[in-house]
Batch of 2 targets.
Target 1
Amino acid sequence: MPKYNIDDILSDLGVPKSKDTPAKTGKKPGDEGPRRHRIDQEEESFSPLPPMPANQRLYGEEAQRIADPAVKRAPSAAPKSAVGRALNEIYTPETDASAPSGGAVQIGDLLVSRGIITAQQLTTAQSVVRQTPGKRIEDVIIEQGVEEEKVLPVVAELAGVPFERIDLNKGLEGGFDGRLLQRLGFDYCKAKSVIPLRTEGMRIIVGSPRPNDIFLLDEVRTRLHATSVKLVMVTNADIRGALDIVGAGQSKEEDLAEILSNVDEADVQVEKMEVQTTDLEKEASESPVIRTVNYIIQTAQRDGASDIHIEPSEKKLKVRFRIDGELFEMMNPPPGMASAIISRLKIMANLDIAERRIPQDGRVRCTVQGRKLDLRMSTLPTNGGEKVVLRILDTKAINVQLEDLGFHDDTLVVWKKLVDAPHGIVLVTGPTGSGKTTTLYSSLRQLDKNSMNISTVEDPIEYHLDGITQTQVHEKIGMNFATALRALLRQDPDVIMVGEIRDMETAQIAVQAALTGHLVLSTLHTNDAPSSLTRLVNIGLEPFLVGAAVNGVLAQRLVRRLCNHCKAQEKPGEELATFLEMQGLDSGLTWVAKGCEKCRQTGFSGRVGIYELLTTDDQLRDVIARNPNVAEFRRTCIERGMVTLRGDGMRKVGAGITTVHEILRVTEANA
């Protein structure tokens, strides 16, 4: 690497000489020491993001043009000096690397001169780069079949960073830090193509195939709480191989202990119970196991998860959380702890820890950091061991007002009138996990519990409601929905909520209750509102009874809400613009999900409901009495002004609440 006189460098940068230059101090050009990488130079400030003036990324004539508007832009944007080209190669963002200027041409020329690629391959790569904004020339060359380990050392040399290989044959001792990798996150390393290699004093060395991604370094430093981070270049193949080793290998218990150091056994309080003196229960009662289980529950509650999946296999124990309807792999405790963790959960749920051959269901009531949670637990024997799923029933999640669920103003007014009606059936329909229970509970909460007798029949009782009588179904002893509903009718009820209308007997009793002066709320599993009425007819009810008893049907879905920290508007493509025009929306710009740290790079945070509300009147009751087919009945409802699920979703797209793709994803069957 040649040495440069500082006066020449400053001249190339368009900066006038100062009294502190070597020319003024009398120092020789080489006295400033060997050239260092930019990240090394910033160690003293303990920040991977140095202050960067507006023109710091521009060199030579371009910097002079900004400093002096009289200087005209040169025909070529590439710096002419070697120093300018080198600095441009280091500092130019990836989006600028797509142009075959300065650094990109130099990489290609050097690869040709060293016999790594041919001139024809370079010409082809440059053509691809020109046609593909954001594409780096080295990536194109590698995609053409040139080996990564031959191309990336040249890129590293020009960028002034070291190039290293990971010895995958040595497994966990191959030159990367498995402990730091777990802290950084397996999925994060895989998505960002980065891997922590080692620690040198106060500095962490990380490997990446991108030599100039200072924003990646800042993310890594923040996630690892590091003082300083330095980059070296490694191949994508080495990173993938190292991640495969970590994914297939067994984690060390010491690593987990470090993560759990701030978790106390008392953080999750459960009801004490008598424990038999078996080896398995002794193992499940040990401190590391208790802290691990507590950590899993605490983390799930903190991240807003609705379900916890604990999935053991021969070589890996996987813990996944369902957040906003999507599953995310969150942690990988040591596989050897699988039986102890599951046994601990069984003890908490008062299940038989010795029985592993059949599924078991239980419930855990606990307090996490002062917040009461109910965990509905289900076990399932698999070839890798018992799998456990915990449904988190958070009382705070159910204590929401109808106004907060996402109803359009017009729809909310009509729905409240239906719930306040003195008699009739009001149905909520949708697939499992679409928010039906939340809507029903929120509707019950608006009623006056002091002046009314409100009773429910549920299977199971998910949330306990003050001032409301709740009855649990027990099919094994003959306590089904129909039996419980008959008993409730002798309890002088005003409002009855039936968890689900599953059969003709339950449907008949519900209709009888509605026609004799009671308000009945219930659910069905149908795709839309009109098909709920035809479903009741198919169950065995007379069409005229369905029309007379049912006041309204609400179909609903849950869609992911755009993250307010990173959502953005972009110009849609031609096909999407046409679709937006057909929906009556602005086709110039549309909201899109970007992704940031606050939303786990998904672009979404939380969920909101979309609704399709059907109300019956005398005219529609006459149509129902004629028992129309589903398609015909749906057309009639839309012609009479019913807003469909997709229509309500598009209103939320226009308001910037969610995206077009999210609405299409959940309403495809209703199109």
Target 2
Amino acid sequence: MKQIGKIAVMTICAGLLGGVAAHAGTVPEGGMRISVAYDDLNVSHPAGARILLARIEEAASVVCGGAPETSDLKMQMFYRTCAQEATARAVAAVGQPLVAALYGRPMQRVAARH
């Protein structure tokens, strides 16, 4: 069955340049929001769920400012935490067990991409 909908991937951080973190559960003023469409996917099947998860992860990367091109560990940790939190919130918002299961197994996700 096709699932119709969009989800919004939200950053929980004010932005990489500002470096100000918000409290969990809030989207900071000026935070970015991206809608991820999945009405073209059947997320009850593995292929559709994997595609949606990839879209969510890409959107999370964008809202968090993209992977930093620096060796600054603080910036890398900030980005990683932001992207993980944004992805987790979006996966929870979708409410699809297969998408959640794929997200909950990062080793399988990495292996499936090779």
